[in-house]
């Protein structure tokens, strides 16, 4: 009896590095490793400073802690796989590990998107109701908001690994990134993947809706700022938003760029797609601590004090 070998249970997948630059992978691993270590050090420093300094026990800094935790989660769930590829040319990843990785990457991505949305609401409340800010965003309310959005992110992406496990895969094993993504794995299936497609689209729309609500928040913030009589106070109010705006741009620009290239580019460069996709997971965890340390005086002062570069 002949066996049907066109539809099999795939035990592993193959990830890719940078096509055409395989001979330079060892050199590419050096900046990636430095970015990874810097991201971990930066976000852990932010968490440590906020935890140990009572003057930073305010809603804005609690939300910044959530952003740092999301960045650490993104780093730990994706960058070690990249380093394994570039350092040791180890392209293989088991199917179960791949499905688990895509769950954590999508989960922490949605969590970071949610935290950026919460932070925009925080900035609106701080500018619109400065005298009631502490009474509106109490510590217990901040914890509740954080837990609600964390649970939302988990529940939103929880079906993804189960929908991938139910698929049957052909003899195609090669993925198109240095880490596992739901849409990437889904394309290798030779069974009906419409459920995966529509649910994946739903998850993507939920995440992009966060960016819409962030934009709406800034419309209200701008409206409030324009109502302030003093020019100096207007600039002071807007300056409190600069760090958050930078974090939003750092997070969403690669996503929007990738989506635009997928949709409109007639001759997409695989190299450009891979580099932007890698930057999406490398840059936000690296840059967010730097941006907040540079643009937020309270964080900068406390970090310098911890490093012994500034007297208390």
From TrEMBL:
CDD domains registered for this protein in UniProt: 7tmA_OR51-like (cd15222)
InterPro entries to which the protein is assigned, alphabetical: GPCR_Rhodpsn, GPCR_Rhodpsn_7TM, Olfact_rcpt, OR51/52/56-like
Domain G-protein coupled receptors family 1 profile: 42-292
Keywords, ordered alphabetically: Cell membrane, G-protein coupled receptor, Membrane, Olfaction, Receptor, Sensory transduction, Transducer, Transmembrane, Transmembrane helix
Transmembrane regions listed in the UniProt entry: 24-49, 61-83, 103-121, 142-162, 197-221, 242-265, 271-294
A GO molecular-function annotation: olfactory receptor activity
A single cellular component GO annotation: plasma membrane
Membrane-related topology note: Multi-pass membrane protein
SUPFAM superfamilies: Family A G protein-coupled receptor-like (SSF81321)
Biological process annotations from GO: cellular response to lipid
Cell location: Cell membrane; Membrane
Family membership: Belongs to the G-protein coupled receptor 1 family.
Protein name from the UniProt record: Olfactory receptor
Species: Cricetulus griseus (Chinese hamster)
